[in-house]
Design brief:
Number of strands: 12
CATH superfamily of the largest domain: Nucleotide-binding domain of ferredoxin-NADP reductase (FNR) module
Number of domains: 2
Helix content: 10-25%
Order of helices and strands: EEEEEHEEHEHEEHEHE
Strand content: 35-45%
Structural class: alpha/beta
CATH class of the largest domain: Alpha Beta
Radius of gyration: 17 Å
Strand order of the largest sheet: 4-3-6-1-2-5
CATH architecture of the largest domain: 3-Layer(aba) Sandwich
Length: 235
């Protein structure tokens, strides 16, 4: 069980550009010296008395002294500008951990993960944690983006699929270039095509509200109970 949310202080140790609009930042915990959390949770960062932004933790609980945040900075709002300006040495205050979009390991159902663009962040943490700790059961990830440039962790998941045959990875884009070797489709149609049956299935869906609703409709139409679709809405 994760610890209760608390006020935390950390210092930026590194900032990376994953794509032109997606950045990662490593935060070294100062107070507390380590953060107890579950893969899939997030932290909130204040920007004023009533203005906060949520950032999912991209790293796993196996590195509690340093957490990695990942953000889509394309919207250009207050959170985007703050994240773009981060540099090593900056101090960051936040509250966490928060959120219940976490994987229940005791659940013996077969997990289907569906992510839309930056919605991949909590799912990336969950999958990394599972396969770092000996999860040998089948799991499927369908990762959708508008084009290949928005698949921030594509190479990582391709590597994971090569190392763990039980893990099935399906990158899908709305628009492809000539070099793209994956699938081109919409997320709900890809889920419909790649999920022939839902018996013994539990789904984790993360991204925009419209995508979440449509994917849930597809799975429910196939016979999956609505409560078996867990979701994390980013926009």
């Amino acid at each position: 069980m994760a610890a209760k949310p608390r006020e935390c202080r950390a210092r930026v140790s590194a900032v990376r550009t994953l794509t032109p609009e997606i950045l990662e930042a490593d935060l070294e915990l100062q107070d507390p010296p380590a953060l107890e959390f579950e893969a899939g949770q997030w932290v909130s960062i204040p920007f004023g008395p009533k203005i906060v932004r949520a950032y999912s933790i991209a790293s796993t609980p196996r590195s509690p002294k340093r957490i990695t945040l990942c953000a889509d900075v394309a919207p250009g709002g207050i959170g985007s500008e703050w994240f773009r300006a981060l540099k090593p040495g900056d101090e960051v205050g936040f509250k966490g951990p928060l959120g219940g979009f976490v994987f229940t390991r005791a659940d013996r159902r077969r997990p289907l993960f569906v992510a839309e663009e930056i919605g991949i962040v909590p799912i990336r943490a969950i999958l990394a944690e599972l396969y770092e700790t000996g999860f040998g059961r089948p799991a499927t990830l369908i990762y959708w983006a508008r084009n290949p440039g928005w698949l921030a962790y594509d190479a990582e998941f391709r590597s994971l699929a090569r190392r763990f045959p039980a893990f099935s990875y399906h990158p899908v884009v709305g628009q492809a270039d000539r070099e793209w070797t994956g699938e081109q489709d919409g997320a709900p149609r890809a889920v419909d095509r790649l999920t022939p049956g839902v018996n013994g299935l539990v789904a984790y869906v993360s991204g925009g509200g419209e995508m979440i609703n449509r994917v849930r409709e597809v799975l429910v139409a196939k016979g999956l109970d609505r409560k078996s679709v867990k979701w994390e809405k980013f926009w």
